[in-house]
Amino acid sequence: MTRILLLGGTGDALKIARQLGPTHVYSLAGLGKVPDDLRCAVRVGGFGGSDGLARYIDSERIGLVIDATHPYAARISANAAHASRAAGVPCWALRRPAWQPRTGDDWRMVDTWNELVDALAPFRRPLLTLGREPLAHLDEIPPHQFWTVRVLDAHPDTARSRTLAARGPFTLDGERALFALQAFDVVVSKNSGGGATEAKLEVAHERGLPVVMLRRPTLPEVEREFVSVAELLNALHEYSRDAEPE
C-alpha cells in the first residue's frame, strides 16, 4: 500500500484530505484552524527544509507526495519537489489555473513588493488581500493613503490602516456591501486562481476599479500536475485503492 503525504493548507487540499484513509498524512504549516474531522493523520509544523522533508519521507515510508499548497507557497513547493527526488518518490502537484482578466478589467501586474507600492501610488483607499505581508509595511504607508488589510487574524489598527480579520470564501453581496461602505479605489490581490473568480474581483469589475495583481512565482516541475481536485482524485483512485473516494 502506497502511503501518501499531502502538503496542504488550502481549501482544495482539505477536499483531498477528506478522501484519504488513516494510512496517509495531511501536513499543515500551522496557520489557521486544524481540521478535526479527518480519517487521515494530521501533522502540524515544518520539516526543516527540503533535507528534513526528505528524511521524513524516508523514515515514514511515504510513497507519494502531493503538493496542494497555495500557488504562492513557492518555497514549500520547491522543498517538496527537491525532497521527493532525493527520497526517490514521485511528487504530484495541484496547480489551479490562474484567473484571466476579462474585457473591461484593469489589472496591473507586478512581481515584487516595491513594484506593488509604486503601482499603488495614485490611489488613496486600497484593499490589500495578500495575507500578512502588508502588516510588515504599515509604517511605510504614504500620508495620502489609508490601507485596509484583510487577514486571517486580528491585528491592531493604526492611524492610516485597519485590518479585517476574516476567512473566505466571501459572498458577492458581502463584498459589494464592504466596497460601498469603505469606498475602496483599488484592490490588491494574488492570482490564486481556481474554477471561479473571487467575489472581490467581480465587484472590482462591476465598479470599474483597478486591480494590482501580484504575479505567481515560478513553481518547480513535478512528475504530474493537475488543474482540479476531481482530476487529482481520479488519478489517486487509479494509483492507490486506499485513497479511493467514499
From TrEMBL:
Extract the InterPro entries matched here: Precorrin-6x_reduct
Q: Which domain of life is it from?
A: Bacteria
The pathway to which it is assigned is: Cofactor biosynthesis; adenosylcobalamin biosynthesis
Give one GO molecular function term.
Answer: precorrin-6A reductase activity
> Is NADP tagged as a keyword?
no
Instruction: List its EC numbers.
Output: 1.3.1.106
State the UniProt keywords alphabetically. Cobalamin biosynthesis, Oxidoreductase
Name the Pfam families on file. CbiJ
**What is the protein's name according to its record?**
Cobalt-precorrin-6A reductase
Q: Which organism is it from?
A: Paraburkholderia antibiotica
